[in-house]
Amino acid sequence: MFAPLRVRNYRLWAAADLVSVGGTWMQVLGLNWLILSATGSAATMGIVVMLQSLPVLLLGSWGGALADRLPARPLLIAFQAVRALLALALLLHGGVAIIYAVALASGVISSFEGPVLGRFGSALVPKESLGSALALGSVLSSAGRIGGMALGGVLVGLTGPNVLFAINAVSYVAVIVALFLMRTEEMRALPVADATSRGVAAGLRYVLAQPVVLIVLALSFVLGSLGRNYQVSMAAMVAGPLHGSSGSYGLLSTVFAVGAVLGGLLLAGTGKSTLRVLLATAFVISVLQFASGLAPNVLGFAALILPIAAGAVVFDTVVATRIQLDTREDMRGRVLATLGLVSSLSGIVGAPLVGWLCDAAGPRTALLLAGAITTVAALTGAAALARAKGFAFPALRRPIEQPA
Questions:
Q1: Could you tell me the end-to-end alpha-carbon distance of the chain, in angstroms, rounded to an integer?
Q2: Backbone angles phi, psi at 190, to 5 degrees
């Protein structure tokens, strides 16, 4: 289950990542508090989120091409140093303009950092341990988020947001130290793109020629758009048909976080990141989402949220695993950049869409409709992958060849 932790470089990275994620979420909380106290505008928060997301859509492909050409560790050290400076820039409190500038700069860094991080992470462990490493990374991210938000919630009331920004800046220093302490000779060597296949266009042609990857990305987009925006639908259900309180929303958020950790632990324990697991999980969480629209009360909704959150982590982790294992390593940065683009688009499209459905048709109808669509998408994806890979599920026919 914890085989990746036997690798020294991965242990260093996991510890640093836990600290960094905690610091990041402390800054998110402090920044939200700062914006609301300074402007009283939720729309300003939306603009900040948009400024962080847009660069990924515009520059992500070039970030992937860069990741496939240059060594990852020096780039990551530079990115972490710049992020630390951006966190310190928030201490200036120079008005909304500084916040917008930091958000935009963070989005630009994410455009290049995301593919580099994915490629670097896959070099830390043996290829057969990649699925477990990604699952453990998801657990650490969830734990860091819970810890960062909890500690930040206490500190922001006692000290104000400045301390949270300073702590986040220090957390990036922890990552830089970990990167310097790693033994490069123990890392798995990944091939780099040659001169004829380095560009963005070459990466796009490669992705478009991979039917399995395209199907997985399409399924990820549909489920990401309609099945991942529970921050929107949970709030609408609590405030509407469930007749809950702010405490009820806090309970559901906690249950969701616990489910995310359990899902990561389950996948790390089994190590089964196959296409069949991906499709089965997509179907189960879609059916559960449909059922959540029928939940009679907060506790019933919470009972469904727990496995949905666990399944969402399993699905997303298996998507990331298959995207990496089923593609050429010299194209990995650009393939991961494409996954990042799909994830960003699903958030940009899905959150307002789910919110509009909740307002126009009611949260129950929104969950029922979204669950029905994602269920159909899961079944359609299964049929398409069976055709592309030449295998079927036991209920259909015997497998022709060993699946991925």
A1: 20
A2: -105, 135
Rounded-to-integer distance, Cα 26 and Cα 20, Å: 10
When pLDDT is averaged across residues 57-70 and rounded to a whole number, the result is 84
| b/e per residue 110-131 (b: at least 16 CB within 10 A) | bbbbbbbbbbbbbbbbeeebbb
**In this structure, which topology does domain 195-391 adopt according to CATH?**
Growth Hormone; Chain: A; (1.20.1250)
Residue found by looking up tokens 């059916």 in the block: 287
Give the pLDDT confidence of 297-356 residue by residue, as tens digits: 999 999 999 999 899 888 988 898 888 888 888 888 888 888 888 888 887 788 778 888
What digits encode the pLDDT tens for the residues 346-397? 877 887 788 888 888 888 999 999 999 999 999 999 999 988 876 554 544 4
- Supply the Cα-derived Rg of the chain in whole angstroms: 21
Residue 243's pLDDT band (cuts 50, 70, 90): confident
pLDDT above 70 as % of the chain: 90
Pair 178, 8: CB distance under 8 Å: no
Single-letter amino acid code for the residue at 167: I
Residue pLDDT, tens place only, 245-296: 767 877 887 788 788 888 888 887 776 778 899 999 999 999 999 999 999 9
**Cα atoms found within 13 Å of the Cα of residue 342, Cβ hemisphere only:** 23
Q: Is the pTM of this model over 0.85?
A: no
What's phi and psi for 76, nearest 5 deg?
-65, -40
| CATH 3.40.190.10 for the 1-190 domain, yes or no | no
Pairwise CA distance, residues 276 & 33, whole Å = 43
List Cα–Cα distances, 70 to 58, 189, 198, 281, in angstroms.
20, 13, 11, 36
- Cα 141 to Cα 264: distance, rounded to the nearest angstrom: 10
User: What separation in angstroms does the CA of 98 have from each of 48, 91, 111, 161?
Assistant: 11, 10, 20, 15
Spans of all domains in the chain: 1-190, 195-391
DSSP 94-114: --HHHHHHHHHHHHHHHHHHH
CA distance 68 to 75: 12
Evaluate whether 59 touches 108 at the Cβ level (below 8 Å): yes
